[in-house]
Amino acid sequence: MNFKILTVGASAAFLVGAGHVSAAVITIDSFDTPQAVADEPFGVAQPQGSEVKAPDAIGGWRDLYVETDDEGNLSATTLEVRDSNLSFSNEDNVTGRGWVTYDGYDDDPFGVNKTGLGGIDLFTGPLGTPGFLFEVVRLDLPFVVTVRAWDMFGETTEFSSTVSSTGTPFLPFAAFSNEAFDFNEVGALQFFADSGDTTINVDAAIGSISVDTGVVPLPAPALLLLGGLGGFGGLAAFGKRRRKRT
After folding, report:
1. What are the tens digits of pLDDT across the range 47-101?
2. What is the mean pLDDT of the chain?
3. Rounded Cα distance, 143 and 64, in Å
4. Hey, which of 16, 55, 155, 173 has its CA 20 to 30 A from 209?
5. pLDDT-derived band of residue 120, with 50, 70 and 90 as boundaries?
6. Residue 60 DSSP SS3
7. Structural domain boundaries of the chain?
8. What region, left, alpha or beta, does residue 83 occupy, with left being phi > 0 and alpha being psi -120 to 50 degrees?
9. Residue 129 in contact with residue 217, Cβ under 8 Å?
10. Could you count the other beta carbons within 10 Å of the beta carbon of residue 122?
């Protein structure tokens, strides 16, 4: 799969969740249905994945997929849903990555059914700033997170940045790389975590992922992360697309 990565720059992309007024929230996943995958290479790195029926997840199903880089290490990269948290962990001296995919039922945790969600509308609220909300409940070291999405018209878009603090960061749809993408007709969603190139032990947990359909920013919000959003100019284009297709 080929994806266009939006280069991380020096303007604000994630905002503290307390710095806005929410209009309406759509739950992507509350992580109530248990699930776990671990890549334990034992000399040969072998990606591991699973798909489970999850009423708490958008589309009713959740795919997990992990892989580890270090083929000579007996430790693992793990993705686990337990106690209403999604945990991502690398053991000592191991780098790796994990994917969480929402594409309905396709019996394939490694691939993406790009129309599996059937055109879910993630922006049904009033005028404002729509975007993703992440409940980061535990984090010992920074890691890279990427959000990918596919719409029902064959468009794909994504945003990539580094998570470096707990809290409730907000990622506006305007930060994404493809202005032609339609968040009113979403076919699949994927969230990707990567420990990066360093050999570190990452331990992070997410309590929930959701969409705020019409955030109204308050004055001078505190910054949580720095990312590749060159202002909110993309939001105007998003609004034009929405009016054109509705």
Report:
1. 788 999 999 999 999 999 888 776 555 446 788 999 999 988 877 666 778 899 9
2. 75
3. 18
4. 155
5. very high
6. helix
7. 11-245
8. left
9. yes
10. 23
